[in-house]
């Protein structure tokens, strides 16, 4: 679908509210963006300077200027003191949880860890609740939570062994918000040509950043593929076409990227999803020009639509393009 038609379609889905607009970027600097809605609040969770932070606002456009609150800083000398990557903030039952990858200063020791709030509030304090690992205890990053059929599952990116050769997507059942209760199951490896771009004999192939997207009983995992350091980072899609999420054969991979770069928007990837005024939005990072690499990443967002329960993201919208943005009344 051409970009103009996509934008018009998105605008037609918005409820009749006072007019508004939004133009990218959302944040001038940032990576692995995670935005979660909580009533009339939107929370942006991120890592910076060895700590985990959150910014909150009733209007997503105001997150860039919202005050930053430090949620947690790890103590020195632990297995999780360094390289805090891609924190995700989840509200489960009556507590807030932060899932984050961390290591002891050596990337090979990256594992998933979880923090929990003392009460049903982001005011904290947050305490370290442990490592989230399956029995293999292999390298792991980008963990997220899937709820399906009355059960919870942990989905993450990890290595098959102890060598940085390929990052795969794994899933395991959870016994609680802080613990895994089963062996891990491999549900995706970078086996398509478009998933291997930017890799080499020295650089691994990549499947990472899994994100859950559900609608009317259909479950998708939107993940990032190709080298995040390259100009080819993009998004792929796994769809649960069977009944059991722990059955690898129950997941079907889309044959092509579902969201990839253009001449003006390079390496879009590692996304999250939110709703604004009844419309679905994808939030992602990209780089403004070829060769930008990790240091140039910044955060963008745009509406997307559904077609027969399949998300259609269109193409990344260029910076400065005005998108329809609804006025959002506070939740009653």
Task: Provide the fold topology.
Elements: H1 3-13, E1 21-23, E2 34-38, E3 41-48, E4 51-57, E5 68-72, E6 82-92, E7 95-103, E8 111-117, E9 126-131, E10 140-148, E11 151-158, E12 166-176, E13 179-180, E14 185-188, E15 205-215, E16 218-225, E17 234-240, E18 251-253, E19 266-276, E20 279-287, E21 298-303, E22 305-307, E23 310-312, E24 322-324
Parallel strand pairs: 12-15
Antiparallel strand pairs: 1-24, 2-3, 3-4, 4-5, 6-7, 7-8, 8-9, 10-11, 11-12, 12-13, 12-14, 15-16, 16-17, 17-18, 19-20, 20-21, 22-23
Word description of this protein:
The strands form 6 sheets. Strands 10, 11, 12, 13, 14, 15, 16, 17 and 18 form a 9-stranded mixed β-sheet that branches. A 4-stranded antiparallel β-sheet has the order 2-3-4-5, with no helix packed on it. It is mainly beta. It contains 1 helix and 24 strands.
């Amino acid at each position: 679908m051409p970009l103009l038609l996509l934008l018009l379609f998105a605008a037609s889905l918005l409820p009749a509210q006072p007019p508004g607009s939004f133009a990218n970027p959302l944040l001038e600097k940032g990576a692995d963006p995670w935005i979660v809605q909580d009533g009339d609040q939107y929370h942006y969770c991120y890592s910076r300077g060895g700590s985990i932070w959150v910014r909150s606002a009733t209007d997503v456009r105001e997150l860039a200027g919202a005050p930053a609150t430090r949620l947690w800083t790890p103590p020195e000398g632990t297995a999780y003191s360094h390289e805090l990557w891609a924190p995700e903030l989840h509200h489960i039952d009556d507590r807030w949880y932060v899932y984050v990858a961390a290591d002891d200063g050596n990337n090979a020791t990256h594992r998933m860890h979880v923090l929990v709030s003392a009460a049903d509030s982001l005011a904290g304090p947050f305490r370290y609740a442990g490592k989230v690992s399956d029995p293999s205890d292999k390298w792991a990053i980008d963990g997220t939570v899937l709820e399906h059929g009355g059960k919870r599952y942990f989905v993450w990116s990890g290595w098959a062994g102890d060598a940085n050769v390929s990052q795969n997507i794994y899933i395991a059942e959870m016994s609680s918000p802080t613990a895994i209760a089963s062996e891990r199951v491999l549900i995706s490896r970078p086996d398509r040509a478009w998933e291997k771009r930017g890799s080499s004999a020295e650089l691994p192939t990549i499947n990472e950043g899994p994100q859950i997207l559900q609608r009317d009983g259909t479950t998708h995992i939107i993940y990032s593929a190709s080298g995040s350091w390259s100009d080819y980072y993009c998004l792929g899609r796994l769809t649960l076409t069977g009944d059991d999420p722990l059955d690898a054969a129950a997941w079907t991979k889309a044959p092509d990227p579902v969201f990839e770069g253009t001449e003006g928007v390079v390496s879009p990837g590692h996304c999250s999803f939110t709703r604004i005024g009844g419309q679905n939005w994808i939030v992602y990072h990209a780089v403004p020009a070829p060769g930008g690499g990790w240091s140039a990443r910044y955060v963008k967002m745009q509406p997307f639509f559904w077609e027969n329960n399949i998300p259609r993201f269109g193409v990344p919208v260029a910076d400065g393009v005005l998108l329809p943005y609804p006025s959002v009344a506070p939740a009653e």
